[in-house]
Each structure stands twice: as structure tokens, then as C-alpha cells.
Design a protein that fits this description.
This protein is of the alpha+beta class. Among the domains are: 3-22 and 184-252, no CATH class; 46-174, no CATH class; 329-465, Immunoglobulin-like, CATH 2.60.40. It is built from 21 helices and 24 strands. The strands form four sheets. Strands 11-12-13-14-15-16-17-18-19-20-21-22 form a twelve-stranded antiparallel barrel. Strands 2, 5, 8, 9, 10 and 23 form a six-stranded antiparallel beta sheet that branches. Mean pLDDT is 77; it is low at 309-316, 478-493 and 658-783.
Length: 788
């Protein structure tokens, strides 16, 4: 039996592992629960958490023990209060300790067989009635205000039955987990089905280690860890299943969070990667399952409460497309590795590399990029990028001349092959492919020898909506040499600002005008209007300044300046069917993860929605003041957002409202000379990324070079954030411009560039191609592991 067949047999053997839980359905329930907890962040720390831990020990566990033992009171499932369920959740995620605590305090493991989550809408009346009988002085539903004022330390010390496990630390360790699994793609059935299969593979690897007396700290990716958590939340099943599968209850160690190179997590992830790929012959990394960087800082530590929240959504949400049209674009995240090559011509071994692109370039990916071949170079490079889920990925194998003194420096084209993205989506049965592709020689020339073949590994996420991005092009801007193709084509009228979308199409033109020919006599207030001019010539009044604030879209929205008493408070408020506060800088999902010096945070403003569903705020848009673009995560914010962006960009600060643009006083023309590399990296340079010494570059090397700390021309051996493609003054963590290579930066999942989102080797969550020495991973994709 050859190696590939042996690896496939190992995978099939792993899938026979028996688990007595519907892990997919339970994982979806867990995601819903974690989202609810994240909307109640008072449960993460402080007196409220202390109160929750007391209630868990004094009320919930005794109630659960009584209920599971006495069948006479089981009329319907128990529904735990949210605070108790959260603490119980974190306790169960140390399965060995939870088992021992339950057995010590109650003589048996307390399971969830008779329990349903507080977040699934099940009737709570029976549980609440039973609770009130047993604990008349402790309300079933905790009051947030009272919880913060009640000292429970004396009550805790007086409890007869109480775990000594440090639940505060357990909660602190689990609180950031939801951010890592909160992507829209994670709840997809195909993604979760593959996650369950990979979890079984993870357990199989640990089983093989035990059989061979190999001690290894195994580190899961986040898709595997989500399913692992899900299994642990069913403690009786988890104990039985793991005893049967691997002969022990698997410990869940989430105490180590140091991702530094050479540390326990790093070496553990590298070892797990190498063993997985050797055992199963398939890649361990997975699109949408790698570390995203640390959870972003909140914009407020107190939930926002207002009568405005929960206001009915009006017709303006659907009215947007009556005023402007913008494309509805879907996107997938792609991870790509060139694993091996066979039948390589003599003299080229050790020298080949692959240039990949899309046969149908799209608004998210329209460049060429380059990868080494793992089997030939010993360097594990994984490219990460976003693209639309259509067309084909094209691969060209290139090699240097076999001569010691090459006649030409141009690499030789050894052939090409393609892989259709439809292979992943029709039918939607798999999100990962690893296969050999036979190359077609250049010019379709025939050869009697065996065709050269590439082993290509590709993983994608399920398609999700790509946020629309609109760019403002001012009249008089210098477009010559622009890094953005759309700006070269745009030709705004003399007094207008042209709004274009990511496909380079005109959306609308905007003008700032004085209403009624100017201010009335004796009135020093300048009356201004924002006029929209459609391509057909139709004009619309989109906004009007009242003297104190702006009315937008026939007063359906208002934009007003806020005198924030705190330096980090909101600057503006956009109010309509939704409540949006605008903050200076990149906040929440847009927060830069790495290399923050690459661009000033003052170049950006973040629009944050507050609602009953998001009392701590949800980022719904980002305004890039320097490149005059607005990205909208929700359709309802596109039109009011771009009008507000235009207002803030158009009116000088000295007039008392608007402006606030970093480029207002120190104007930077689009397309001006920015090739001279500043201290922290390059601007628009380096061409297509296949540049001098790019063979050693871990950066994505797409059109606009320079990383955060280096440019693509000499990013020798860099594994991460010094080698990415930041782009035209762009930068780490986000230029928001969806170009095929102009934009980017480390941490740049917010950056819709074809060159720069993704990996730093899967570790720093940042830029482009991660170079990993040898055949192992770099920078662990997870914070939780198991020593087996």
C-alpha cells in the first residue's frame, strides 16, 4: 500500500470514532449562547461575576443535583439563569476538574441531560417556580445594578458545598474565545461538518501518540476547538466517549497563552501540524479557523441603554437602492499551499516556485502572487487572501535556469494548471481540496515525458457577504499614476465629488451647495446642502444643514457633532432607524492587530451601532479619511454613511462642523509620489510582487509593496509582519480599499486586498504569505491544547 492510501486509511479510521452527541447542532447552540453572553459583558469580570459564581455554587449546582436525582419534579427541562449557565459553561471546560468536583460535592457527575439553554427561547416558568421555592431570598434573574453593589464574599465562605476551582480565572480565559469563532462562516453546516470530522482526526492523532508512548502538547485550530468545547459541555458523554476512544478523559489545558516563537504553544502547534500532515496527508491549517489576533478593545465598558434602541426599522433601509446602486459581492477567504512537485525536469530541483492568480480577476483579488514549493524549498508558505467565489485559480510553475551562469535572469515557465472554485461550491460538500494537477506545457507543446504535476492544497470558507466599499474622488485630484485602477478611470465634474464602487463603476456624484443662493440677510449661519447627481442627470437633496446638525434623506437621519467629555468618546452621532456613534480611529473589528505605526489612527473613523442586540456596540462601517473611502458592513448604513463621510470630508474644521480629515491641511494627492519608503515601510512600489530577492520573501508581494517594516524587494526570510503588502500609504491593519494588491497590512482581515489578508504563518493573523521554516506551522492558531 502506497503512502497516500495509508494516509487515507488513517483518516477513515479516525472517522469511525463514536461520539454520542449531535456535535453540529450542539455547536450551533454554543455559538448562540456565546453571542448572548458577549452582549452581557458584565458577566466577564468584577462584582457581577463574583455574584454569578456565588449563585452558581449556592443555587444552580444544588438545584441541578436535586432535579437530576428526583424524577418526580421533572415536568420540563431545567433552564439555568444566564449568569449561572455562563459560569457552568466555563467550569465544564475543565472536564477533569469538573468531574472530580461533582463527584466530591454530589457523588456523581452532574450532566446537562435535563437542561436546555437560557438562550433558546424555552419556557422558564417551572425552573423559576422551583428556584423561588428553594431560594426565596435570591431572585432567579439577576439584577445588573444590584449585582454590582452586593458583596458576596462572606456568603461564599459560608457555603458548605463549593468548588475551590478558580472560576474567575476560568472565565477570564474563556471570555476571548467567542471573538475567534464569531465569523459568519462558522455557523455554516458544511464548515461545522468538516470541523466535526477534523475533531475526530485530532482525537485520532492523540490516540496514536498514546499507543506509541509519544508525549506531545497537541494544539487545535479554532474549528476543532469549537467542537472540542461542544463535546466537553456534555460531561457524561465526553467522559464515556474519550475513555472508549483513547483510554482516558482528555485534559483541556487553556492556561497557556504565550504565542512567542519557541514557547510551548508554538512548538506544540508546529508538532501537531507536522504529525497531522504526516498521518493524514492533508493540511492542518484551515480557512476561517486560524487565530484572528487578540479580541479588540471595547468602545465602552457600560452597556448603552436608551429608549431609542429597538426602534422599528423604517422604509429607508430598503430605500437605499432607489437612490444609489452598488454591487452585492460575496467573498471567500482562501488559504493556499503548494505542497509538492513531481516529474520536474533535471536541473530545476530546489529552484522552482509557483505564480498564482485568478483567470477571472475580481474586485477583491486581481493580482499575481508567488509561493515556494514545500517539497523543494523546505519552506512552508501559506498564502491567505480573499476573492469572489467564481472563476479559477491558475498556477504557473516557474524555475530558474539550470545553468550555473544563467544566460537570462528570466525564470523559465514549466507549465500551468487551474483549479475551479466551483469545485468547492457545487455541490457544497467540501471546503478543502488537496490534489495533484498535471501542468500544460507553455504553448501547449507536446512532450513524450510524463507531465510535470503540482500538489496543491486549497481551503476556503463558505461564501459570505463582502462589505460594499465606496470611494470619493474629488474634482482636481491628480489621478496620474494612481495605485487604484478605479481612480484612473474616474473623471469627476469640476465642482463635484464622484462616488465609485469597488468595480470602478460610478454610483453617484455629490456636491456641497449653499441653499437658496446663500445665507439670509442678517443671518450669519451658512445654509448648506448636499446634492446628489445621478448618472442620468437627476438631482436629489440628500442632506441639509440646520445650523446645529445635518438632516439626511428628508430627515430620516440626522448627523450631529457630540461634545464628548472623554478623549476616546464618540465624535458624531448618526440617528435614524438605527443609532450609530462615530469614533475617531479604528475600533472593534477594525482595530489594527499589528504594526500600528504604519498608518495614523487619526486617518480613520469607525461607525458603531448600538442596539438591544449590541449594547456594547457593533462596528458597521469604517471611514478612511486619507483615501476618502467608506466601507459598510450593513446595507442600511451605506447611503447615510457615504453622505456623512462626504460631509465630514468636505467642510473645513474651522467652520465648526465636519472636516476632521487628516488630509485637509496637509493635502496628499492620490497618485502623488509615495514610492520613497518611509521609516516603517514602503508605499506604492515593488510592482507585481515578483521582485528582486522575492524568493526569500514571506510577504505577499502584491502590487503595492512595502510591509510594515520592510518592502517586498528584500523581505528575505521574513515570516510575517515585515513582509506583507501594505499598499499606498496603506498599512498594517487596514487601508479598507479593496484593490488587488493595494492595501493591506498585518492584521489586515479588514483589508479587502488581493494581496494582504491572512496569515503571518497563521499566527499573527496578519499579512499575506506566512513563511514557515521546515514542514511545521508557525505561531499557534489556538490558545488551548492537550498534553498527550
Amino acid at each position: 500500500m502506497d503512502k497516500e492510501n495509508e494516509q487515507e486509511m488513517e483518516w477513515l479510521q479516525a472517522q469511525k470514532l463514536e461520539i454520542n452527541v449531535d456535535l453540529m447542532a450542539a455547536a450551533k447552540q454554543q455559538l448562540q449562547f456565546l453571542a448572548t453572553v458577549d452582549q452581557n459583558r458584565w458577566l466577564y469580570e468584577g462584582p457581577s461575576l463574583a455574584r454569578a459564581i456565588y449563585r452558581y455554587n449556592a443555587c444552580w449546582l444544588p438545584l441541578l443535583a436535586k432535579y437530576s436525582e428526583d424524577s418526580s419534579i421533572r415536568e420540563s427541562p431545567l433552564v439555568p439563569p444566564l449568569d449561572c449557565e455562563w459560569v457552568w459553561h466555563c467550569h465544564r471546560l475543565n472536564p477533569v476538574r469538573y468531574k472530580s468536583d461533582c463527584e466530591q460535592l454530589y457523588g456523581r457527575v452532574l450532566d446537562n441531560s435535563y437542561v436546555v439553554s437560557s438562550t433558546n427561547g424555552h419556557c422558564k416558568k417551572q425552573t423559576e417556580d422551583l428556584w423561588n421555592v428553594l431560594y426565596p431570598e435570591e431572585p432567579y434573574d439577576i439584577d445588573l445594578v444590584k449585582a454590582d453593589s452586593v458583596d458576596v464574599s462572606e456568603k461564599m465562605s459560608a457555603l458548605e458545598k463549593c468548588t475551590e476551582y478558580d472560576l474567575v480565572s476560568a472565565v477570564n480565559r474563556q471570555s476571548p474565545f467567542y471573538y475567534q469563532v464569531s465569523g459568519a462562516h462558522v455557523n455554516n453546516d458544511v464548515f461545522l461538518d468538516e470541523a466535526v470530522a477534523r475533531y475526530k482526526g485530532f482525537l485520532h492523532v492523540i490516540k496514536r501518540n498514546r499507543e506509541r508512548s509519544i508525549k506531545r502538547f497537541c494544539v487545535p485550530t479554532y474549528d476543532i476547538d469549537l467542537i472540542w468545547h461542544t463535546h466537553q459541555l456534555h460531561p457524561v458523554s465526553y467522559c464515556k466517549d474519550l475513555e472508549k476512544a483513547i483510554g482516558k478523559i482528555l485534559e483541556h489545558d487553556d492556561t497557556d497563552s504565550d504565542r512567542s516563537k519557541g514557547k510551548k504553544l508554538d512548538t506544540g502547534f508546529s508538532g501537531t501540524t507536522a504529525q497531522w500532515e504526516e498521518t493524514f496527508g492533508r493540511r492542518y491549517w484551515k480557512a476561517g479557523a486560524m487565530y484572528r489576533g487578540g479580541a479588540p478593545a471595547p468602545v465602552t465598558n457600560s452597556p448603552f441603554a436608551s429608549d431609542l434602541l429597538g426602534k422599528e426599522v423604517s422604509a429607508e433601509d430598503s430605500e437605499c437602492h432607489n437612490v444609489i446602486q452598488f454591487p452585492e459581492v460575496e467573498a471567500v477567504e482562501v488559504l493556499l499551499e503548494i505542497v509538492g512537485v513531481k516529474n520536474l525536469p533535471d536541473g530545476h530541483k530546489g529552484k522552482p516556485f509557483v505564480v498564482f492568480s485568478k483567470t477571472q480577476p475580481d474586485s477583491l483579488f486581481n493580482t499575481e502572487r508567488r509561493l515556494t514549493v514545500l517539497s523543494e524549498s523546505g519552506q512552508k508558505q501559506v498564502a491567505s487572501f480573499q476573492c469572489e467565489p467564481k472563476g479559477e485559480l491558475c498556477f504557473r510553475l516557474m524555475a530558474s535556469s539550470p545553468c550555473k551562469i544563467p544566460v537570462s535572469k528570466e525564470p523559465k515557465d514549466l507549465g500551468s494548471a487551474s483549479l475551479s472554485l466551483r469545485e468547492f461550491l457545487v455541490p457544497a460538500a467540501k471546503l478543502s481540496v488537496e490534489k495533484w494537477l498535471d501542468l500544460t506545457p507553455p504553448g501547449n507543446s507536446k512532450s513524450d515525458s510524463k507531465p510535470v504535476s503540482l500538489r496543491v492544497a486549497v481551503s476556503i470558507t463558505p461564501p459570505t457577504r463582502s462589505p460594499p466599499l465606496l470611494t470619493m474622488v474629488r474634482s482636481g485630484s491628480s489621478l496620474k499614476g494612481s495605485c487604484f485602477p478605479m481612480l484612473r478611470k474616474a473623471r469627476p465634474a469640476k465642482s463635484s465629488t464622484l462616488i465609485v464602487d469597488e468595480t470602478e463603476a460610478e454610483v453617484i456624484s455629490l456636491e456641497m451647495r449653499n441653499s437658496n443662493g446663500g445665507a439670509a440677510k442678517g443671518d450669519n449661519t451658512v445654509k448648506k446642502q448636499v446634492i446628489g447627481i445621478k448618472e442620468s442627470g437627476e438631482t436629489l437633496v440628500l442632506a441639509e444643514f440646520t445650523g446645529k446638525f445635518w438632516n439626511l434623506l428628508d430627515s430620516k437621519w440626522s448627523l450631529k457633532h457630540l461634545n464628548s467629555p472623554m478623549a476616546d468618546g464618540p465624535l458624531f452621532q448618526l440617528l435614524g432607524s438605527h443609532l450609530v456613534k462615530v469614533y475617531s480611529g479604528r475600533k472593534l473589528d477594525y482595530e489594527p492587530k499589528h504594526c500600528t505605526k504604519r498608518r495614523s489612527d487619526q486617518d480613520f473613523m469607525t461607525a458603531v451601532e448600538f442596539s438591544k442586540q449590541h449594547p456594547y456596540g457593533k462596528a458597521v462601517g469604517l471611514l478612511d479619511l486619507k483615501f476618502r473611502s467608506f466601507e459598510a458592513k450593513e446595507n442600511w448604513v451605506v447611503l447615510p454613511g457615504i453622505i456623512s463621510a462626504f460631509i465630514l470630508d468636505s467642510i473645513p474644521k474651522k467652520e465648526g462642523f465636519g472636516g476632521w480629515s487628516a488630509a485637509t491641511e496637509d493635502e496628499v494627492e492620490v497618485g502623488s509620489e509615495v514610492n520613497a519608503a518611509p521609516e516603517n515601510g514602503g508605499g506604492c512600489g515593488s510592482g507585481c510582487g515578483i521582485t528582486a530577492n522575492a524568493a526569500d520573501s514571506a510577504g505577499c508581494g502584491s502590487e503595492c509593496g512595502g510591509g510594515c517594516g520592510g518592502n517586498t524587494a528584500k523581505a528575505a526570510g521574513s515570516a510575517g509582519c515585515g513582509s506583507g503588502c501594505s499598499g499606498c500609504g496603506g498599512g498594517c491593519g487596514g487601508n479598507m480599499v479593496k484593490s488587488g494588491g493595494c492595501g493591506g497590512g498585518c492584521g489586515g482581515n479588514m483589508v479587502k486586498s488581493g494581496g494582504c489578508s491572512g496569515g503571518c504563518g497563521g499566527g499573527c493573523g496578519g499579512c499575506g504569505v506566512g513563511t514557515l521554516k521546515g514542514a511545521t506551522g508557525n505561531s499557534p492558531a489556538q490558545t488551548e491544547a492537550v498534553a498527550a
